[in-house]
Amino acid sequence: MIEDILAERLEIAYEQLSAIREIHKAPVNLNIKELYELGLNKAIKLLTGANPNKGFFMDKDEVSKKLEGRRRYKKIIEDVIKKKKAFWDNRFLCIPLIAQGREVIGVIILEGFPEKPFTYDDVKILLPIISSLANVIQNMKYAQAQLKKQFGDKLGEEIYNDKSKLEPKYLEKTTVLFADIRGATKLVDCLSKEPTLFSKVMQDFYEKGREIILDHSGIVDKFLGDGLMAIFGVNDEQPYGINDENPPSKAVLSALKLEEWFDKEFFPKWKDDFIKKLHKFEDIALGIGIATEDSMVGNFGRGELINFTSLGKSPSLASRICDEAREKKKRKPKSIILIDEGTKQYLPEGFEIEHFKDISPKNMPHRYPIYRIMGV
User: Which residue, among 284, 264, 331, has the nearest Cα to 190 in the 3D structure?
Assistant: First the structure.
């Protein structure tokens, strides 16, 4: 009798460990929904009293939508999520997925048979598996959120499900944008003893910049201390043609939007905070440089480190143009957007453009005309 009990417990422990191991290996091949299904199947397999046709799972945010009209289930599951405790009765078992930080990310629900009601022992059997499942799903959601934050919802989801989209590739045309806050060095000097305040200013700029870039189908490549770099046209279905939906047009429109926000909202918002620290806060302005040339684009990181960027003529020229994005005369600085000939040729009528100057960038073979965007 004792031997039978021990054998049963060992078998359960083996099944638990096997299930946990499989769950931790799963993210390489499965998406979040498939991982939930794997966890559900493992739970049903371990509990002989569970009805294999009645189990289901859901994210925390799906409860109200999925259980509309099923008041009893909805109330039970909401209590399970709120109290972070499992619930069971004769025919129903609900266990919360509690991840690191005691965050409930979802629930797994099993239905059973009246002749074999669920017990606390059933809960104890499933807890190690459910806990592992919760942590893995939490990590997957975090990785997914980071990709969406950089690439946008659509492309971020595609990359998450197909990592081959990150592989480096050569593109005959990519549009790269550099944006830089002029006068930021002065701010750093004046606020060297108040890094938190400077951090808030830059965070405001980064968040709005990211939002505007993504709204115009761009990718935030990186934040550069007092500026940012963005790429357009990497995975764009719209070919390069003369219209307002091509990558160069989207880059310029995003620059105009960023310039407008910087001058009308960002500058007035932070001016009073700095006036005592920097008497010439009016020296602050935004410089933007945009170029459309060939480049290599993809992930040039190692291992799990994603460093998706553009290398080659397009980013090099855009960076040089951004360096020129300041007023020619010594007067009150003003935000300025400059573009190359490669970008200009794809802009449709309606953009106000004037020649700014010609430049001969170091280590680049040609002399390049650059143009100023005055408006649209």
Answer: 284
Dmax (CA) of the chain: 95
List residues bridging with 232 in a β-sheet.
Answer: 175
Write out the H or E segment, with its range, that includes residue 339. strand 336-340
Gap between the Cα atoms of 58 and 144, Å rounded: 18
- Per-residue pLDDT at 162 exceeds 80: no
Long-range own/partner contacts, residues 344-353 (CB < 8 A, 24 or more apart): 344/371, 345/242, 346/240, 346/241, 346/242, 346/246, 346/247, 346/248, 346/249, 346/292, 347/242, 347/248, 347/249, 347/252, 348/242, 348/243, 348/244, 348/249, 350/244, 350/376, 351/252, 351/375, 351/376, 352/376
Residues 258/230, Cβ–Cβ less than 8 Å = no
Helix-strand-coil split of the chain, %, nearest 5: 50, 25, 25
Q: Which of 246, 269, 267 is nearest to 258 (CA)?
A: 267
Q: Are strands 336-340 and 308-311 parallel, antiparallel or unpaired?
A: unpaired
Residue 272 phi, psi (nearest 5): -65, -30
Q: Is 348 helix (H, G, I), strand (E, B) or coil?
A: coil
pLDDT digits (tens, 9 = 90+) for 73-109: 788 888 888 899 988 888 888 889 888 878 888 888 8
Mean pLDDT of all residues in the chain? 82
Rounded Cα–Cα distance for residues 3 and 9 (Å)? 10
> What token pair was written down for 16?
């638990």
SS (H, E, C) 124-147: HHHHHHHHHHHHHHHHHHHHHHHH
Instruction: Note the pLDDT tens digit of each residue in 286-324.
Output: 899 999 998 888 888 665 566 788 888 899 999 999 988
Residue 336 phi/psi, 5° resolution? Answer: -145, 140
Strands 368-375 and 285-299: unpaired
Are the C-beta atoms of residues 19 and 68 closer than 8 Å to each other?
Answer: no
